[in-house]
Amino acid sequence: MNSRAVFLDRDGTINEDVGYPANAGDLILLPGSAGAIRALNQQGLKVIVISNQSGIGRGLFGHAEVDNLNLDLNERLKAQGAWIDAFYYCPHAPAADGEPVCDCRKPGTGLFDRAADELAIELRLSFMVGDKLSDISAGASCGCRTVLLGNDELFETAPRYRPDCRVPGLTAAVEWILSQIGKKPD
Description:
This protein has 186 residues and is of the alpha/beta class. It has helices at 33-42, 54-57, 63-78, 110-119, 133-141, 170-180; strands at residues 5-8, 46-52, 86-90, 127-130, 145-149, 165-167.
């Protein structure tokens, strides 16, 4: 039986976006992110990180650094009773004009498709939460409902990227998601 998932962008959604984080010292959890993820875990929802990690393609760091950072993130979350079920990331840098060079870089849906196949996820029952237009576009393109974090005015001028919900942070996003599926945080 396919299940529902909540896909999360990593940098700017769970932890501070510091550019190209490559080590544990760069990892600063955003306030409330562990509690929000724990609420999803407690409801039996799969929590999956989908992120663009173009620092690999740009030669700033390698796969090992991203994998270690993801492990450290999960350890920090587990210390607070939360966890990420799986991490998927695109290692490719965009083309010179900013366009993706692959189908795995958001706004492409390749990583969503792979997660759906590997983890038996029903994308049309799932949600994507992120802080960038590419997160919203990717989630909507694969059938997920979308939640945009932040109050950046840029998003007001891009009507094709209308999220299903817009909130200031992950805690509010999770509250909205749970309300949509008839669940209440424990």
